[in-house]
Amino acid sequence: MQTPPWEAKVYRNRHGRGVRTPMFGTRLPRYRTRSGYFDDAVASQLKRLNGAWPELIGPVQFAVEDVPPSNPAPWERQPQLTSQAFAATHGSPARIVLYRMPLQSHARDREDLQFAIRDELVLRIAELYGRRPEEIDPDWGM
Asked: Which of 46, 79, 88, 51 is nearest to 64 (CA)?
C-alpha cells in the first residue's frame, strides 16, 4: 500500500545531499522569468491606464501571446508584429493582444520594455476608440 506524498519520508537524491532548493529566493528579482516580468509589466500599465480611463479599459479584454500568428488575415496589408487590436463583434468584446517576443527583442533594457508596452497599449486603445494616442496618454511616444 502506498503512502500519501505528505506522509512519505523526505526524498534525498542519490548523493545524500538532500532536497534541492531554488537558487534564488522568490522575492529576488532574478526569480521571475522573462515572460513573468513581461506579464507583470503589462498588468502594471493596465492598472495605471485603468486609473485614468476606467470607461475605456473596462470593456476591453487584454491578452499576451508569445509570437504573432504566421498567417495574417487576407485583408491585412501589413501584418502587425508587436500588437493587434480586434474590434468588438456580436457576442465578443474588443480585444488587444500584445506579442511578447517581438517587443522583448526590440527593447534594450527593462525600462525600454516598459515604455514599449505602454506605447503599444495606448496606441491600440486609441485605435479601438478612434482617438489620438496623445489624448489617452500625453507621454505617448516619448
From this structure: 46
